[in-house]
Write a structure and sequence with these properties.
- By secondary structure, the protein is an alpha+beta fold.
- The chain folds into two domains: 2-70 and 81-204, Hotdog Thioesterase (Thiol Ester Dehydrase, Chain A), CATH 3.10.129.10; 230-351, SCP2 sterol-binding domain (Nonspecific Lipid-transfer Protein, Chain A, 2-Layer Sandwich).
- The chain contains nine helices and 14 strands.
- The longest helix has 16 residues, at 137-152.
């Protein structure tokens, strides 16, 4: 039985190319005797085939049960950030984000090429001592990394230790502490209050970055994310993606939308928040109402999340909730559009997750 123990990723090139032919070369870094198991660390270097430029460096440590006791060393060398202990400070986290995984998360993640039956076959997972298939470590590692990116921006390296399991459908809570240019973090499973990731940290690419402030009132200032609104994560992700683009790529993406879009979003508790995407003047995504919007979209929080993640379509929402498109203001529907309705369809590219070509 092979279990993923630790992972270290160093991003050598920003912005990360969205299209390239990549070549990855692997090497053995360490083989340690842990008694009942062997610890094996593999390093990989990923390059752009056309230029030879290094894009990523990875170090993955796996534990192979039943393969220890061969008399090798039990402790490896210090490899800097890849082996740092990263103990959280003794204070409340500077930032906390949570995200629920989907019931089919492990099945979807298999599309990345990791077909370990531990994550899909109930009988195989029982052999490993798990009553049901567990989620891939790299999957919830990626979700935690996304949380750091959304709160603090790009990082040049990130290291984690997998300390527990996550079941598809459980909620991940990432607790973050800002220490200089490093974000120390740990990730828990909310439903079981169990640690999933520990001894973890990301080193930011920029200089000193202050911890994210508490959300301001809806006046366009302050943090984009608002507790209780899944839509706020959609806008935060869209802003993060936009900020990593080159000036040329950013201008091209904004030109496609070329408008000021205000979203008035109501959550299940009946609370309403607003966000504005200005793809015409400022090239910004922020919390708050627009001064003058070309389009105002009034929508339920869960519907906006579904639209952004491809689980719903604007057309289906219109058809379900509108009795009359000619007199939409009198409708009691969940999706309404004021202003240039045709322009509203152009905003999808800014809210959709990126599709990388590799």
């Amino acid at each position: 039985m092979l279990l993923h123990g630790e992972q270290f990723l160093e991003i050598k090139k920003y912005p990360i190319p969205t299209s390239a032919t990549l070549v990855t070369e692997a090497r053995v870094i360490d083989i340690l005797d842990k008694g009942k198991a062997a610890s094996v660390t593999i390093g990989t270097t990923t390059k752009d085939k056309a230029t030879g430029e290094v894009i990523f460096e990875n170090q993955a440590t796996v534990f192979i049960r039943g393969s220890g006791g061969f008399g090798g060393p039990s402790k490896g060398a210090d490899r800097g950030a890849a082996t740092a202990t990263n103990t959280p400070p003794k204070r409340a986290p500077d930032a906390v984000m949570e995200e629920r995984t989907s019931e089919d998360q492990a099945a979807l993640y298999r599309l990345s090429g990791d077909r370990n039956p531990l994550h899909i076959d109930p009988e195989f997972s029982k052999v490993g001592g798990f009553p049901t298939p567990i989620l891939h470590g790299l999957c919830f590692f990626g979700i935690s990394g996304k949380h750091i990116y959304q709160k603090y921006g790009p990082f040049k390296n990130i290291k984690v230790r997998f300390a527990g399991t996550v079941l598809p459908g459980e909620t991940l809570v990432t607790e973050m502490w800002k220490e200089g240019n490093k974000v120390i973090f740990q990730t828990k499973v909310k439903e079981r209050n169990a640690i999933a990731i520990t001894a973890a940290a990301a080193e930011l690419t920029s200089g000193e970055v202050k911890p994210a402030s508490k959300p301001a009132t809806s006046n366009g200032a302050g943090d984009i994310e608002v507790p209780g609104f899944g839509a706020s994560k959609v806008f935060a992700q869209a802003k993060a993606q936009l900020d990593t683009l080159s000036p040329q790529d950013k201008a091209a993406k904004l030109k496609k939308a070329n408008g000021v879009f205000q979203f008035d979003v109501t959550n299940d508790a009946g609370k309403t928040e607003s966000w504005t995407i200005d793809a015409k003047n400022e090239g910004s995504i922020k919390r708050g109402k627009a001064g003058k919007a070309d389009v105002t979209i009034i929508i339920k929080d869960s519907d906006l999340v579904n639209l952004a993640t491809g689980k719903g379509s604007a057309q289906s929402l219109f058809m379900r909730y509108f009795k009359s498109l000619r007199n939409w203001a009198n409708c009691s529907g969940k999706l309404k559009v004021k202003g240039n309705m045709m322009k509203a369809v152009s905003i999808g590219d800014l809210l959709a997750p990126p599709k990388a070509k590799v």
